[in-house]
# Entry
Amino acid sequence: MWNQLLEDVRRRFAAVRSWSAPHLEHVRAAAPWKRIGIGVGGAFAVLVVSLVLFLTFADWNALRPTVARFVSAASGREVRINGDLDVRPWSLTPEVRVGGLEIGNLSRFRDRGRFAGVRQADVAVRLLPLLIGRIDIERIRLDGADVALYRNANGQSNWQGKPGRPFNLPAIRQFVLRDGRLSFDDDVRHMKLNAVFNSEENLARRQNGLFQLTGGGVINGQPFRLEAQGAALLNVRRDRPYNFSADVRAGATHLVAHGAVLHPFDLAQFSADVDARGDDIADLYYLLGLALPNTPPYHLTGRVARSGDRYDMTQISGRVGDSDMAGRFSVTRRNNRPYLDANLRSRRLDWDDLMTVFGSPPDTHETASPTERAEAAQLASQGRILPDARLDISRVRKMDAHVQYAAAHIQSPHLPLRAATVTVTLDNGLLRAEPMTFDLDQGRITGTAEINARRDTPWTSVDLRLTHGRVEPFIPVANAISGSLAARIRLQGSGASVREAAANANGAASVVIPSGEVREAFAELTGINVTRGLGLLLTKDQSQVGIRCGIADFQVRNGVMNANSIVVDTDTMLITGSGSVSLRDETMHLHIKGDPKEPRLIRVAAPIAIRGRLRSPSIGLEGGRAAGQTGLAALLGTVLAPLAGVLPFIDAGLADDANCSALFEEARNNTGVRPSQG
# Structure
């Protein structure tokens, strides 16, 4: 064959030489620049003629190894052509047909076998755009395509040369897929998927069908199912959106999307309406790659749009547990890491839903997943409050975030909370909530919280202040006590869960009642004045006595809150206390006793004991213990001496409080002891 081709070329060159011989003398006599131009033109003409002859008469099957080597060098993948190779160049849409095509992986993935195999591929390219360097594919038909996608734990994938670069095909006007298979193995998301895809359009009859991809597998050990379909792949144009829909089920998570690729088939430009529901938003990590907080069951809708490396979800609406949720978020990449920027809000926040973020399951009567109900039942059976849910350090370290959240109203049966705002930042494993504000019916809680997951064991710190509060909402007995309230708690501890961090906590916690009133019956009972205290209770007497100052100060070491001093000075009684509260085993053992400021006819000098688990403490007399009789002046000086520093610790304004400052001054004058200023 090659001998015949060469002989034909020789004959054609001889004819050209014979035709040009009479004109050579004229050319020699011409100007030099003309001779040069004619020579270059002749060489170009020979080259074009040679190329035309080559394309017309070449045996493409004989050239399969050469073509495969050329494509392999250009793509960085080993390419083999095991079937026929046929090229039809003389058309406005040149065509190539390849049989038995095998495409290998990039060098770093060669141990994964081949990247793709195609039983037969037909490709037609528009000629005119190709002449100006633009690839515009008129038609692709793939029969029996088998594609194996893989991404390793470092995020490197075998389908793209540059990590993080979006998948983008040239424009394809007609795309026919038959009997295709797709496998996807993702070490980042712990996902394995096996799917089939088809597009059964009939080019001759112009019958438009649908592109369909269906498959299943596992994601993080849970069953995974994917169904996707798109509009007909006939007459697809780059300037017209390509519509698609997808239905994804992974365990209890269910995502439905309806959208469009804006410029087919540039998958870096699309938008879709999304409906998502499941048992826990944190489960979306394996689908989205975002470290989201734990939540109760949710149902959210919104619109997702992608533009290059940026994802936006707007018009978010729905519920998380028993709380509504709205807002927007965006995801970009900073320092080669996902960065989440979100602004979310709730008209009504259920307090149990917020506590789920910290691993505490909702009450059994609230909206909860089966797993959360089981956790709540276990905590109740053990008489515990603090949850065991552990922070996944690996997830927190893989992304950064800036989230603003506001709740217009808070539903809480046990706390007088009204509204909340918080800004959360996540920076390379350091999670910080600052500022953090909770508005009460009266008063406000402000502060910061921080989890440092840069360490092997997370380090948690909390600093919260209550200012301008009232004591009434925190006392379950009606009309027992009233007055203003201020408090501060500052703790630090290591641990991967709330329970571990609390068990290792160090810090301080203090409460101050600068002024108020206490029901006289309760004040008298602390001194065990049987004839007066019980009598007042039995007659339902509502008489009040003034509180000059009340302070409770605890030092926290290794998860145990030891009372430095507890004192409530009323008009008729000086109430003092001692004891401890253990965050390690969630128990408390406190003693409260009262010393009357005037003689009592009958008085049992035994303190009241508050003990048992934090979840359900009991109150009773401390049997067998008699309180020693101490002079009030000496007692006042003893209990107040270490407390003067508590006021500025809680709030600098309390240091000048008239009632407590007067009490300190009285203790100093009566005992000669100057209270510590911290």
Notes: The chain has a mean pLDDT of 78. The longest helix spans residues 32-57. The two ends are 104 Å apart (CA to CA). DSSP finds 15 helices and 32 strands in the chain.
